[in-house]
Each structure stands twice: as C-alpha cells, then as structure tokens.
Amino acid sequence: MRIGVMTGGGDSSGINAVLRTIVTQADRNGDEVYGILRGWEGLLLGNLKRLTLENTAHIMYAGGTMIGSSRTNLFKVENGFDTALEVADKFNLDAIIAIGGDDTLGVADHFCSLGLKAVGLPQTIDNDVGGSDYCIGFDTAVTRIVEDIRSLKTTSASHGQDVVVETMGRETGWLAAVSGLITEAEAIVIPEMSISFDAVVAKIADAHQKGNNGCIIVVAEGCELEGCERIEQVVDAFGHKKLAGIGYGLRDQLQRALGSTIRCHIMGYVARGGDATAYEVTRAAEFGREAYRMVKAGGFGKLIGYRNGRTMDTDLEEVRIKRYVTAELIERIAELY
C-alpha cells in the first residue's frame, strides 16, 4: 500500500511525531509512505519524497514539519483538483493522510467526494478545528506562551509597568484563555466574550490601587475593542486576514486611560516552533497510529480527533464547524472582572 502524507497551513510542534509514527507503523506492515512536499502544492507539482525509518529518525520531538507546508488553495487553482488527482494516480497513492487546520482538511474532504481516499488529522495552534477537543501543536504553543508570560511577570514587577501580551488564534481565543488563566493574568480578552475597554481599564486600575503595578493583560489577536486600532496585513490564499496589532492598539488606549507607561509583547511565530512537549508527542503519536489504522481499515472521509478523553473518529466534514472556547473557560475569565 502507498500512503501519501501532507501538512498544510501554519506549522506547529508535534507534526514530525505524527510523520515518524505513520512511517514506523507502515514499515512494520510492508507499506510505503510518501511525503507530499509543501502541502497541496506538492500534489500539484508532483513533489513527493519517500519517507523511511532512516530519513525520519530523531524527529519525534523536533518542531516544524520535515516535509514542509504551504497555504496553497486548490479551490483557487485552475484545474487544481484534476491536476492533483492525476499526480496521485501517477504515484499510485492508495490514500492520503492530511494534517492541518480547517482549510487544509476542507480540501481533503472535497478530495473524498472526487474519489481520492483521505483521512484528516487536526493540527493548528489555534485549537479550533471542529470535531476534536484537541489539535496538534496546542500544548506546545501554550507552554511557549506561559514561559514568556512568566518571564514578563518578573521584569514588569521590577519596573512597575503593565504588559499587554498578544497571542495568535485568529477568530478564537484558546491560546489567550488557557495561557492567561494558567499565569493568573489580571485581564484576559478573547473574541468569544463581549468585554468592554472600560472593564479592562477598571480591572487594571483596581489592581494598581491594591499595589500591583506590574499587571499582565492577555489579548487574542482576533479581538475587536472599541477605540483600539489594529494593523491588518495581507490576506492569505483562503481569504483569512493575517491579524496583527490589537495588542499595540490596546496598549496605546490603556496608556491614555491610565496615564502610565505600558509595554506590549507580541507572542508571534515562536509559539509554533521549538521542540514539542512530552504531552504533544504522546498525543501526536496516538493520532498518527490511529490515522494509519483508519487507512488500513478503509475508513476514509474521517477526521481523527480527541474527544471526552480518548482518541476517536468523526466525519471529516465536521472540520467546517469552528470550535470556540468552552463555556467553562469563559465563566472562569468572567470572574476576573
């Protein structure tokens, strides 16, 4: 059996653990694995590489993806799906395991309707893919953010200056919510909650009155706050704005409202990189094993996800339903105000 595997969209730590696990499982059963280089782009151009035990050795904890990634949108490429199907046929691929977020997995779902057998794995630090309570990359990203906030706490306390920390997450606030709660940030602002700018000001002003002049304010990049301008950059191939700058906008407004100097720290791409955490590797390897098992069992058009404390599968089309921060976390954040 020949299995293609690809990663699309933004990378994260944990992907290589999936790749290594799939290769290991396939080797035990006499199957071949081909890495589709740079995501769907590789399937368009015929850029595939045989993955073996030798060339995937020592990658379990390594960050990034050894087969590369891109944001190629086959829906916007003329004859894109037809060309990709021809390449898959040329390489005699029996199935494809797609690793990525809702955009990448949405393409995989469409491939299934065209006859190309595919299985999906949720991978994004945003942790927002429908059909799974956990996405590959999230734990490592949260760990990176928590490490930075803990470091910022010491220097902000020393200088008596508050710090606004902006996290990634697009339209969801998973990274901001979890990292903010873990580090006991004074204020957390996420897209799923209607938190006014005045409420944030009141919270920080109250902290100052109680002697805390080194507050941490965590804000998700997708938030909209009245009077807080952002920098919006280019739009990617799937039509998503690369959001940036709400942290600076919030900082500027807070400085004017509080009359104090406030720092801003953008927790950007570093959250995607570096060695994966032990939990990440464990979960990713489990996803990889289940994806391979699903392919061998002929369970195509499925998403391998994690729900209610166990790995399970669901229909791949569920990735189109974005997963937002839970009511439980929202309630805990609301208690801050």
Beta strand count: 13
Number of H/I helices: 10
Low-confidence stretches: none
Percent of residues in β-strands: 15-25%
Write the topology of this structure.
Blueprint lengths: L1 E6 L7 H14 L3 E5 L3 H6 L2 E4 L28 H11 L4 E6 L1 H12 L4 E5 L15 H22 L2 E6 L6 H9 L4 E3 L7 H13 L6 E5 L10 E5 L5 E4 L1 H13 L3 E6 L10 H20 L4 E6 L2 E6 L11 H8 L3
Parallel strand pairs: 1-2, 1-4, 4-5, 5-12, 6-8, 6-11, 7-8
Antiparallel strand pairs: 2-3, 9-10, 12-13
Helix pairs in contact: 1-9, 5-6
Quick tags:
337 residues; alpha/beta; Rossmann fold; 2 domains; seven-stranded mixed β-sheet; four-stranded parallel β-sheet; 10 helices; 38% helix; 20% strand; elongated
What features would you describe in this structure?
The chain is an alpha/beta fold. It has helices at residues 15-28, 40-45, 80-90, 102-113, 138-159, 174-182, 197-209, 246-258, 278-297, 327-334, and strands at 2-7, 32-36, 48-51, 95-100, 118-122, 162-167, 187-189, 216-220, 231-235, 241-244, 262-267, 302-307, 310-315. The protein has 2 domains: 2-137 and 276-320, Rossmann fold (3-Layer(aba) Sandwich); 140-272, Rossmann fold (3-Layer(aba) Sandwich), CATH 3.40.50. It is 38% helix and 20% strand. The protein has a 7-stranded mixed β-sheet with strand order 3-2-1-4-5-12-13, with helices on both faces. The chain has a 4-stranded parallel β-sheet with strand order 7-8-6-11, with helices on both faces. Strands 9-10 form a two-stranded antiparallel ribbon. Helix 1 (15-28) crosses helix 9 (278-297) and helix 5 (138-159) packs across helix 6.
